[in-house]
From TrEMBL:
<feature type="transmembrane region" description="Helical">
    <location>
        <begin position="342"/>
        <end position="362"/>
    </location>
</feature>
<feature type="transmembrane region" description="Helical">
    <location>
        <begin position="32"/>
        <end position="52"/>
    </location>
</feature>
<dbReference type="GO" id="GO:0022857">
    <property type="term" value="F:transmembrane transporter activity"/>
</dbReference>
<feature type="transmembrane region" description="Helical">
    <location>
        <begin position="213"/>
        <end position="233"/>
    </location>
</feature>
<keyword id="KW-0472">Membrane</keyword>
<feature type="transmembrane region" description="Helical">
    <location>
        <begin position="274"/>
        <end position="298"/>
    </location>
</feature>
<dbReference type="InterPro" id="IPR036259">
    <property type="entry name" value="MFS_trans_sf"/>
</dbReference>
<feature type="transmembrane region" description="Helical">
    <location>
        <begin position="72"/>
        <end position="93"/>
    </location>
</feature>
<feature type="transmembrane region" description="Helical">
    <location>
        <begin position="401"/>
        <end position="420"/>
    </location>
</feature>
<feature type="transmembrane region" description="Helical">
    <location>
        <begin position="368"/>
        <end position="389"/>
    </location>
</feature>
<feature type="transmembrane region" description="Helical">
    <location>
        <begin position="310"/>
        <end position="330"/>
    </location>
</feature>
<keyword id="KW-0812">Transmembrane</keyword>
<dbReference type="InterPro" id="IPR011701">
    <property type="entry name" value="MFS"/>
</dbReference>
<feature type="transmembrane region" description="Helical">
    <location>
        <begin position="140"/>
        <end position="159"/>
    </location>
</feature>
<protein>
    <submittedName>
        <fullName>MFS transporter</fullName>
    </submittedName>
</protein>
<keyword id="KW-1133">Transmembrane helix</keyword>
<dbReference type="Pfam" id="PF07690">
    <property type="entry name" value="MFS_1"/>
</dbReference>
Amino acid sequence: MALVQSQADTKPAQGSRIWHPDFPVRPACFPFFYGWVLAFFATLGVCASMPGQTIGVGVFKTRLMEVLGLTSMQLSVSYMIGTFLSALFLGAGGKFFDRVGGRKALVYSVAALGFVLLGMSFVDRISLLAAYIPVVNFRIWLPGFICLALGFALLRFTGQGMVTLASRAILGKWFDRKRGLIIAVSGAVVSLTFSMAPLSFEYLIRDVGWQGAWQVMAAVLLLVMTALFWVFIRDNPEECGLEMDGGASSKPRKMNPDAMVHRDFTRPEAARTFAFWAFTLMFALSGLVITAFTFHILAIGEEIGVSDDFILKLFVPGAAVSIVSGIAISWVTDLSFIRIKYLLCIMGISGALAYGCVGFGTYPEISWLHVLGFGVSGGCFSGLSIIIWPRFFGRQHLGAISGLFMTTIVIASAVGPFLFSMADSFLGNYRIAFIVSAFFAAALAVAALWADNPQRKLVQG
């Protein structure tokens, strides 16, 4: 397939042979479009971020509290501080992605996550050494608190931040017309994998201990994942002599106006659009609530009157609904008559429904509505979060724009557990926090009606 020289994000030849697009495998020589291989490993990249996601950290919570002598509130605050610190560097991380390309960015980020996990497995010993520092030892819990906050900062930056950002941004560079299909399949795999993470990590901890669990994960990332991503990941099709989607379609069809890119936006230009913040704030609210719900899951279950097993098992049907809705959302984005802003509106309505269930509902009677709301909202998140940025703002500055988006998401996820903990401490329950979140979700659903694709305005103007 002919090389498309006009693409703005085509990279020059790499200085070192080990990073050359045709080494050690040549994508253009595959008997089928290499984007399908790329999609598999980019999806694997998102799955590799699990140890740095809240769903992967939560099972370590009680173990860390025990060995470091921290209370639940102290652990929540250290998690918030660490996540805040990680968000400060995600903008630079996005620019790093644009500068070095997706292949290097993903390999380096996965390796960094592996080393962070290795360090986190010794956080108890590191905190003992930190206790000898006069500045941090005037409270018995402070050395462990500081070490854990710094560890969380590195864990969140590498895992939830860079590994996720790089994997999703790479995927967005290889597909255009088929982007909805790819995102649907990728999102289904990620949702299923993430739903199994807490139980899998818990079993691993029981077998080898919390330290051994992090060490096993570190070994897998450093010895297996980094090698796989170096071999198979490529930044974009143009550097490999290929075209997006594998070339021209043999079956012409009417394009969705929301899929037509007329020019590339810079990060400051994107940040000045209403659409960017309408989508970003909706995703941020979802991240805030889901992180808080996951972090305080057992306490919330007790408050709404269900057992630990019952509240944990709601993740399974929720993941199923998320997979189905994610596939549906991703598929309809490729239809010529669909406006993506209406899909964002659906996300807001389903989110308001889910949060309202926890805030006002009676369990277990309302559990089916809980599963439906959280599932559809999660499906919209996975289905839209990769599609919108290359369609709305082009591919040239995709890393920087995604970095700003991820920074906002990470900040929201940082404050989520803390805000919900504050609601419980000062207002006596978590329900009020869910009620407030439901009102915000409804308001953002209304705002979504004005979140038009900025590319449309270029044509209309």
